[in-house]
Amino acid sequence: MLIRIQGGRVVDPTANRDAVGDVWVEDGRIVPPSDRKPDQTLDATGCVVMAGGVEVHSHIAGGNVITSRLLLPELYVSEAAPEGHPFAHAGGAAGWIGATYARMGYTTAVEPAMPPVQALATQLELADIPLLDRGALTVMGNDDQLLQILRDGEGKAAVRDLVALNVATSRGLGVKCINAGGASAFKDGALRLSLDDEIPCYGLSTRKIMGALLDAVEEIRVPHPLHVHCNNLGLPGADDSFVATLDAAEGRRIHFAHAQFYAYGVVDPENPMTGGFRSAARRITDAVMANPNATLDIGQVVFGQTVTVSLDILRQFGGRKGAKPKKWVLNAGDAEGGGVVPFLYRPKGPVSSLQWAIGLEIMLLSGDPERTILTTDHPNGGPFTQYPRIIHLLMSKEERDREIAALPGVVTERSELAALEREYTLSEIAQLTRSGPAKLLGLTDRGHLRAGGRADIAVYRDDPDRTAMFTAAKYVLKDGDVIVRDGEVVTWRQGKSLSLTVESDKAMERRTETYLQDRYGQGLDSFAVPDAAFAAKGPVFEDVACRA
After folding, report:
1. Where does the Amidohydrolase domain start and stop, copy by copy (predicted)?
2. Residues near 542 by beta carbon (within 8 Å), at least 6 away in sequence
3. Which position among 50, 75, 249, 451 has the lowest Cβ density within 10 Å, counted as fewest Cβ atoms?
4. Confidence class of residue 192 from pLDDT cuts 50, 70 and 90?
């Protein structure tokens, strides 16, 4: 079917395009303008046409997400899926996730924390999410087999082969490390860990573990850089950990997750843990802009009730006293562990308000929106449903000032936000939410509107109320099918699960089989993600090639 999206303002920064024109679609792909009569014409007059949104970091599946639903069922009441649609499952969460992202014009979403031992369950949950393509990042950095290999000094080849095997077995889209070595250190009594602190039992450091994973990701040629959750998240002085980690990358590609939670400078160096914190947004942004090997996503805080979910058990243990409501779950199991701690970001609270300001600061100070990706670290900084409001604040100095005026004075005293005049353009928003994330993940077929690209397209009414504009798209196309019309889902369809094509080493397979049998009494097959598990859904996975 030939479709013409006619008369909209087409915004595609990858093609330096920002002008009224048409976009043509055929057989799920964007095609050059045609002289043929279209089979369908979508009127985009008075609208903005962009590529479909791409989410790089949203906790939408996996053990911690399930635990959060059990701990806080009251937060998930609104996630009831539309009655009768074929993708509803217990609680309706998958249908709600897919539909809500789609209404906002998003067509791809990535779960950033998939432990290999939970890969099958996580991939099954992701496959339940309709409308979107989705993927997951394989977590390494605290697992015993990797730490043994490093402790024994086996060299880069063994680490590379183990990482490749874990990515292949879990069908990951990339690799993430979370406070590398922190879970093991916590189990031996540590409450804080820095880059060069020794991890008991292994005699390693975060620097050593992360460096080995950086090298492995490069050798395997994973498109997405190593996705790094640093030490000391959320603590005064976390900016030092961020900059030290960036320096430790030594020019290797690195992506920093939820950078807002590290942009906390010490107010009182004599009392770093009791003197509060100030914004270090400029320091973080300047450091990343000076290092073209680095990218970051924001982890923007928004006000209201949420729940924090993380495999960083060390930091979740530290944050349990701030739980609201007063209930929490920690799991100190094998490898990563994890924790679920509910949290309330209060607009009248000085800490919450300063966190809110810092995330916006980072984006407004960035000289390269394509390396500065919009996320809320859903649900840690707040729900992804707040993206339209965040976009509005970025595009309107007046709207920011209105909100700042209602917040505590710490926002102006300890951050630069009120003084920043910048207003994002639509092209910069497209970089922040489309082309940047797609490029970061190595998904060359999306994030743009050039001929040959996947026909994942969002059409928005050009409304000065940017919150309203980006909350409910006029049209959303997924692979050329209209799935949203006037902010409502009109076609329920299954997306694809994106996984990296990686070959595993047979010798490492045999070695890991023995290791798992000795440790768990189960082998590799028990942790694999076979096609047979998804047979009822038909073909689910789509391969993503490694870098050439």
Report:
1. 40-483
2. 133, 496, 497, 498, 499
3. 451
4. confident
Say which residues have a Cβ less than 8 Å from residue 206's Cβ, sequence separation at least 6: 179, 180, 181, 182, 193, 194, 195, 196, 197, 199, 231
**Helix, coil or strand: residue 293:** coil
CB 363 within 8 A of CB 420: no
| Side chain identity at residue 360, one-letter code | L
How far apart CA 100 and CA 473 sit, in angstroms, is 11
The predicted structure's pLDDT at residue 81: 45
pLDDT in tens, 271-329: 766 678 999 999 999 999 999 999 999 999 999 999 999 999 999 999 999 999 999 99
The helix (run of H) or strand (run of E) holding residue 438 is: helix 436-441
Closest-CA residue to 294 (of 406, 183, 214, 179): 214
CA distance 11 to 194: 43
- Phi/psi of residue 98, nearest 5 degrees: -60, -45
C-alpha closest to that of 94 among 69, 127, 67, 50:
127
DSSP label of 433: I
pLDDT of residue 272: 63
DSSP 26-63: ETTEEE---SSPPSEEEE-TTEEEEEPEEES-B--SSH
C-beta separation of 201 from 184 below 8 A = yes
> Residue 169 region, left (φ>0) first, then alpha (ψ -120 to 50), else beta?
alpha
> For the residues 183-198, what does the mean pLDDT come to?
91
User: What does 89-154 look like in DSSP terms, one character per residue?
Assistant: -GGGHHHHHHHHHHHTTEEEEEEEEE-GGGHHHHHHHHHH-BSSEEEEEEE-SS-HHHHHHHHTT-
pLDDT tens per residue, range 176-190: 999 999 998 998 888
Strands 475-478 and 457-461: antiparallel
Report the C-alpha gap between 6 and 8 in whole angstroms: 6
Average pLDDT value for the chain: 94
Q: Are 306 and 380 in contact (CB under 8 A)?
A: yes
Query: DSSP assignment, residue 396?
Result: -
Residue 324: CB atoms within 10 A of its CB come to 12
Q: pTM for the full model? A: 0.96
DSSP 316-379: HHHHGGG-SSS--EEE--STT-EEEEEEEE-TT-HHHHHHHHHHHHHHHH-S-GGGEE---TBT
Task: Return d(Cα 230, Cα 336) in angstroms, integer.
Answer: 14
DSSP code, position 473: -
User: How does pLDDT run across 324-355, given as a tens digit for each residue?
Assistant: 999 999 988 777 788 999 999 999 999 999 99
Whether the per-residue pLDDT at 494 is higher than 70: the answer is yes
In this prediction, residues 199-211 reach a mean pLDDT of: 95
